[in-house]
Amino acid sequence: MATLTKDLPHNGTTAAAIAPSIYKEPAPIVDRDNPLESMMQRFDKAAEILALEPGIYQYLKTPVKSVIVSIPIQMDDGSIQVFEGYRVIHNDILGPSKGGIRYAPDVNLDEVKALAAWMTWKCAVVDIPFGGAKGGVRCDPRHLSIQQIEKITRRYTADMLDVFGPDRDIPAPDVNTNEQIMAWILDTYSMHVKRTEPGVVTGKPLVLGGSKGRREATGRGVMHSALRAMEKIGIKPKSATVAVEGFGNVGSISAELLAAEGCKIIGISDISGAYHNDGGIDVADAIKYAETHDHLLDGWKGGDKITNEQLLTLDCDVLVPAAREDRITKRNADKIQAKLIVEGANGPTTAGADPILESKSVLVVPDILANAGGVTVSYFEWVQNRMGYHWTLEVVNERLAETMNGAFDRVFEISQKHKIPLRLASYVLAIDKVAKTLRLRGIYG
Ligand code: GLU
């Protein structure tokens, strides 16, 4: 099992050397589309199907709050460097806003806005009482020491004291952030409010009130979605071939759990490159290798080295993009050979790629459904914190399966009814729920 938290050293060592498994994204594909535009194009289509009133359309399309902060940090050599941090609350009418925080050199406000909106739709799809938010700090954790990462985290949290709160806005891990970073957020917030407040953050270590099964939850949810979708199109797990892009928390656990269901994993990738083995990849061995080597899979001998582009277009039944946004675009969508795409990452397919995949009859289980297992168990964690009680792993996993399968079935039914793809059906389900709540609550002021 991939572990996110490694022992942290006390001097000078870079974070990448100590916690390599948190660096999950493969080498970037340069032609980025704007994720906010991709989100809006899908939103517009769903709004049309729902005949959304112009006022509600306007309200739901804009985030309720966007905060940008400058984070000055004294570096290990004594110099001062300033990092930019973001937190966007897209919507909070269903409940406190919820969403992860990512650390990456290319984080920007538009990306965070899109990711925050996706969290609103995601929480509504799985029917949990949260709104959507997302945060990010523009930094390259591979070139920062663990002390610098801690300082950035604590200063960012201190700057967000008026935003965060167990009843207001609850962060969680995302790209390049892990349990240790959540522990620092909990500690900084708790020191300021002068009491220990476990419910301010989810995805934290078990001893601090984390939930059993949270670390594996996103990958487990991807597995449930994949199995449900395979059933719909007649792919038998035991004869299915799968390629997984990204080998961080989501990718590695999705691969591990799908392999346990009998699927043959024929391709994996991470920032060091992509690896192909038609005979089937030994996922446990790859996880062990990535955990014990500074550069993840670099040098791993369990598969032939291929490019990330080749991985995405491998001849396989199921493709699980579990890295970053904008991987399947109008430039490579026609080369995709998989019959089923299950989106472990947020926004891996651009809106431009949607019609191409549709014309090829590729079934796509969209991000806001497929990867909702993470936020679902975050919700369970928050509930346990409020109860001051722990659930067993069996209870967590059982409720997760129930939530994921229930959401899949609701989305599938809408897609059949309106004869629309699962992505659009997920947006219709989510936007309808949020819009209904808004109509009931009305506009204050
Ligand atoms: N970062 C994860 C996501 O994109 C989890 C968010 C959460 O648990 O709040 O869904």
Task: Explain what the structure shows.
The longest helix has 26 residues, at 393-418. This protein has a domain at 15-43 and 64-208: Leucine Dehydrogenase, chain A, domain 1 (Rossmann fold, 3-Layer(aba) Sandwich), CATH 3.40.50. The strands form 2 sheets. It has a 7-stranded mixed β-sheet with strand order 9-8-7-6-10-11-12. A 5-stranded mixed β-sheet has the order 1-2-4-3-5. The protein is globular. The model is unreliable at 1-31 (pLDDT under 50). By secondary structure, the protein is an alpha/beta fold. It has helices at 15-18, 35-49, 54-61, 109-125, 146-159, 179-193, 214-233, 249-260, 283-292, 308-312, 354-359, 367-370, 373-387, 393-418, 422-441; strands at 65-74, 80-91, 97-104, 131-138, 169-173, 241-245, 264-270, 273-276, 304-306, 318-321, 340-342, 363-365. The structure holds glutamic acid (GLU). Residues 98-100, 172, 174, 202-203, 346, 371, 374-375, 378 line the site of glutamic acid.
| Principal-axis shape | globular
Spatial order of the strands forming the largest sheet: 9-8-7-6-10-11-12
C-alpha end-to-end distance: 51 Å
Structural class: alpha/beta
Tell me about the biggest sheet? 7 strands, mixed
Query: If helices are DSSP runs of H or I spanning 4 or more residues, what is the number of helices?
Result: 15
User: Regarding CATH, which class of the domain at 15-43 and 64-208?
Assistant: Alpha Beta
Range of helix content: 40-55%
N-to-C series of helices and strands: HHHEEEHEHEHHEHEEHEHEEHEHHHH
CATH superfamily of the domain at 15-43 and 64-208: Leucine Dehydrogenase, chain A, domain 1
Bound molecules: glutamic acid
Examine the coordinates and then state which fold CATH places here, giving the name of the CATH topology of the domain at 15-43 and 64-208: Rossmann fold
CATH architecture label name of the domain at 15-43 and 64-208: 3-Layer(aba) Sandwich
- As a whole number of angstroms, the C-alpha radius of gyration is 20 Å
Poorly predicted tracts of residues:
1-31
Tell me what portion of residues adopts beta-strand conformation.
Answer: 15-25%
> Mean of residue pLDDT?
92
Tally of DSSP β-strands? 12
